[in-house]
Amino acid sequence: MIIIRELLDKDMLQAIQLKALCWPEELAGMSEHKLDIDKEYSFWINWMHSGIENNDVRTLLGAFENDKMLGVAFASFSEKEDSQCGIELNGLWVYPEMRGRGISLMLMSKLLNYYENLGLKEIVIYNYHHSSSNSFYRKFGARVFKTEFQMDSKIPTDVFKCNIVSMKEYINRSLSKYCW
Description:
Residues 2-172 form the N-acetyltransferase domain. GO terms for molecular function: acyltransferase activity, transferring groups other than amino-acyl groups. It holds the Pfam family Acetyltransf_1. The chain has 180 residues and is of the alpha+beta class. It contains five helices and seven strands; from the N terminus they run βααβββαβαββα. A seven-stranded mixed beta sheet has the order 1-2-3-4-5-7-6, sandwiched between helices. A hairpin with a 4-residue loop joins strand 6 (143-150) and strand 7 (155-163). The chain is globular. The model has no long low-confidence stretch (mean pLDDT 91).
């Protein structure tokens, strides 16, 4: 049985290693940049614990089966220039061999439910333009509302936005296909 729960400090190194594993695919060949695991770990563990002092609600979730991590999702309040009443998906990574089981959908559903219960209305997603996961967000109703250039202005990044209720409806329909 797949369990979705908040990540603990002890889970964070594996979560960052998963991010690093998925990083080349996320960049879609647009950069040879490699992630420094120690720097990423330090950044995200600090980010995890600094939400309150930054007037933010940060959520870090993991999908687990028999205590084995399958995937993770990170979210927080969005920047005001992106959405006055929204969240930002800061990361969504699933082990390649675990894909196709609805894990991303379960993680997204839990995040969206949590933030909707706080009264938030939209989700904002920054995703590299050439990343294959862009089709995932489009499938669930997200639309590009601007494009930015990241990583020293070299890599085009699509910025998606979607109504939380609409995305939840798309995701819940897709989740109904999976039997656990």
